[in-house]
């Protein structure tokens, strides 16, 4: 009789390069005679990987595997960083114009599509763009509860809060740094998030007041650095990594935008902004390249229309790249938490 539990436990997670047994992911594995009935609980959402995992396990076992895949969000501390939030992840860049907000929105939507409860906070007080990218109509305001709490607006299945929901599109934030920091603190303290596995925070570019305020006022589980392969962008990305190091926030990985342009007519690929920059940053700081996204007009068009790539073309190559990056990021967060999902003891039986 096949030792079902040992066999399935040997499966190596595609993002963490560790076996599911070592990660504590296998809950039960039963040999029913006709197949292996396996229940696995991961600390990252991976609903779209169900069939792929089943095929890989079937190949490993040499027989049919029926997989029940569950997700349980890890928490890095017993005390939630914000009311209704288990983990906060900051999406940051050293400079503007590298696609940070596009990345933040698509990662949030990808995590949601994979089975997580997700919110997104637009911390770019001076240039909020999350509302437009999520298709929230201009002038829509969050509901107010108990005369002081904002109820985040729901869009495409995720909860969202932004300064753009409180002012008009034509209202400039002509504020000094302390005023912007105060606005962020208000958004942090007065938003009623509802049972989120993860809150994605779209940071403004740079390493200034807003970044320090977030680090001081909220327990941030990790950060993702967004860059392009261009040398100037990489230089600023390094500053972003160093900033998070100084405030003891782990960098979960790097996302490289505009990595390659593919001609829609002939298919020729051009590395307009350079090549391999994201991987070099990841190697330099002992982290990982979560994903590389192309320079493609549809990414811009979809964001401008309020239908980001993950929503507009969920089976498209760009959406799949974001889904993979989101799973990889969440897996890194799980590993950082010490695989601290609450799971029952492994139960293995052979009938």
Q: What's a concise summary of this model?
A:
It contains 12 helices and 16 strands. With 351 residues, it is α/β, with parallel strands linked by helices.
CATH topology of the largest domain: Rossmann fold
Assigned CATH class of the largest domain:
Alpha Beta
Strand line-up across the major sheet: 8-9-5-10-4-11-12-15
* Tally of strands: 16
Shape: globular
What do the pLDDT scores average to?
87
Label the structural class. alpha/beta
Question: How many angstroms does the end-to-end distance come to?
Answer: 9 Å
The residue fraction in helices comes out at 25-40%
The major beta sheet can be summarized as: 8 strands, mixed
Number of helices: 12
Instruction: Please name the CATH architecture of the largest domain.
Output: 3-Layer(aba) Sandwich
Radius of gyration: 21 Å
Strand residue content: 15-25%
Low-confidence segments? 339-351
Number of domains: 2
Q: CATH-wise, what's the superfamily of the largest domain?
A: P-loop containing nucleotide triphosphate hydrolases
